[in-house]
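yo

u said u wanted the structure for the complex thing, so here. seqs first:
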Amino acid sequence: MSLLRIEALTVRHGGITALDNQTLEVAAGEIVMVTGPNGAGKSSLMSCIAGHVKPWQGHVVLDGRDVTGRAPEQIAALGLSMVPEGRHVFGAMTVLENLRVGCGLRRDAAAARRDLDYVMDVFPLLRERAQAQAGLLSGGQQQMLVIARALMTAPRLLAIDEPSLGLAPRVTDQVYEALLRLREERGLTLLIVEQSATRAALVGARMLMLREGRVVLAGDPRGMSAERIERAYFGYEEAHA
Amino acid sequence: MSTALQYLFDALSVGSLYALGALGIALIFGVMRLVNFAHGDVMTFAVFVLIAPTIEAVTRLWVGAWPTPLLVLSVLAVGALLSVLAEWVLFRRLRKASPATAMIASFALGFVIQNLLLMLHSSRPKAVNLWPQLNQPVEVLGARLPALQLLTIAVAALLLAALAWMLRHTRAGIEMRAAAEDFQMARGLGVKANRVIMLAFALSGALAALIGLLMVNQTGLVDIRMGAPMMLVAFVATVIGGLGSLQGAVLGGLLMGAVSTLLQALLPQDARAFRDAFLYASVIALLLWRPQGLFVTGAQRQRV
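structre next:
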């Protein structure tokens, strides 16, 4: 059974349809990368899954449970953690305090401490700068912090909106290395939004390309020609979706 | 020397009342982006339980006649409960409304509370003399100070320290700070919106009640209009400290106290009557210089 199922989901913002009656699934342990140009509906999809935006129509089913329209904190408690676009660190708080915010849902304090240790192993920099004010970290460090913080809620599905945004390519590589390691070691399911399809091929993800609120291309990007991906991206191939 | 010391204590005691008031406003603004103009009336309502409702001029104590610890706890509890009730009945429904709508609603709520008190107690200020021994002067380092002033400073310092500790070291405190910075993100990490907001309202209401108690002891009066001017200053203090910053609110409050005491001391006799004009002129100058507030750090600004 799929870990996340999105059924005939429509998201609208003030009369504009951001996501148009789309159905898609993410299986446990999978990496799914949602790509597509600006305004394709990628972030709307993510906000809706995480409960920040209520859908116009359709359902979000997490692990067999209908979570449509639930509050973000309830969805987080059910095992879906979303890292929104733009690195929302709590800037006035320390790195460690940021990580603690993610621990509120944990019942088992010992397990939470082990996880804290674990994320600091994956991102050693966070251990070094544990007492630093989060707002003073560099962009890449902040991205690592928000991913680590999302992990502290012990999610089964980690959804990340544009982790590479504004990062140097080398730093993006580090972030992805860590994500793949987490998937390997923790069996984490990943749903990642990126504009470009290049990264999807690189990490061996299944790709869903969105354009104007619809999936226009789906599958393993490694089996697709660059031309086909480009045509879908720029909107010449909607018919073959 | 002792005059300077006198002024210092004046500034501290006035400033700590403003600081506590500003903190109550900042707590709620932090989690809800609501400027709660009913804050002052929550304070007034809480201290009015000290006396029995009557429209006669003679005051009869009600909660005010209870043993001190019970009295203090009851007044604080009334402040906290009224504040939580306001959230539950009114502000919860306005969470998705624009900040202006919620602010106007808080104005309206303030008037409702004030008029309720007017119906119950009439508009006459009532004399309440709770602890006369607090007006006895005490000698500190050669300065003679009313004991109440020392108490005010001590209570404020203790409370601020306790709150700072709570915000830094408890789960509720860390969640509240996170919610104050980025509420959506905090919720996404499992922070329960309703619980954090309710806690902020409860703390804010209890703080308001406490200020009320201290003020009643200073003036010996309860007055249905006592909340508004106090909270106006407190609100200004949160703005000059930087709306949304709790430390900023406290420091802004202390600064307002210091400046108004200094003006009182240094202005020529004839100008003293216009002290507030000078005070607010300096507020305007300050805001023109730093519109974002004095104590907003780079890290916090970056986020927006």
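Strands of chain A lie at 2-13, 16-27, 31-35, 57-62, 65-66, 80-83, 157-161, 189-193, 206-211, 214-219. Chain A has a mean pLDDT of 91.
cya
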